[in-house]
Design a protein that fits this description.
0% strand, 7 helices, Hypothetical Protein Yqey, Chain: A, domain1, 149 residues, Arc Repressor Mutant, subunit A, 2 domains, mainly alpha
Length: 149
């Protein structure tokens, strides 16, 4: 994934796409920050799975910022945040639809034999492992909770 991001940055620099260039540099900086933290803790460099987590976090941050800007009457800044979300999502797996998320939740519940809310953590752990970056785990958590009641 690092190579993919680096190639996209080179292409953005050649086309002089300032928004894309800036966003890709932010992605690389976030990955490098995590690498430095790992080095300090004696861990291996960041894996592709961790890069997906970083990207998911960046998308979530921008969604919150866009909402705050809209609430504050700053539509142009909200639009910038949404543009950055689209650029970041280019490097993430395709998001699952609502029906697919429900199906995946049901499957996991059946797979681990969950029979109550006390098994919710196990279900969410399996979902995060099977579908990294492919679903909104906040929504999935609500679905799992409803299914386990």
């Amino acid at each position: 994934m690092r190579d993919q991001i680096a190639e996209a940055l080179k292409a953005a620099l050649k086309t002089q796409d300032k928004r894309r260039t800036g966003t890709l540099r932010l992605i690389q900086a976030a990955i490098q920050d995590r690498d430095i933290a790992h080095r300090g803790a004696g861990k291996d460099p960041v894996s592709d799975e961790e890069i997906l987590q970083i990207l998911s976090k960046m998308v979530k941050q921008r969604e919150e910022s866009a909402k705050a800007f809209e609430d504050g009457g700053r539509a142009e800044l909200a639009a910038q945040e949404r543009d950055e979300i689209l650029i970041i999502r280019d490097f993430m797996p395709k998001q699952m639809g609502d029906d697919a998320v429900q199906h995946a939740c049901r499957q996991v519940i059946e797979q681990i034999g969950a029979d109550g809310l006390r098994d919710m953590g196990k279900c969410m752990a399996v979902l995060r492992e099977k579908y990294p970056g492919q679903m909104d785990f906040g929504k999935a958590s609500g679905l799992v909770k409803d299914m386990l009641k």
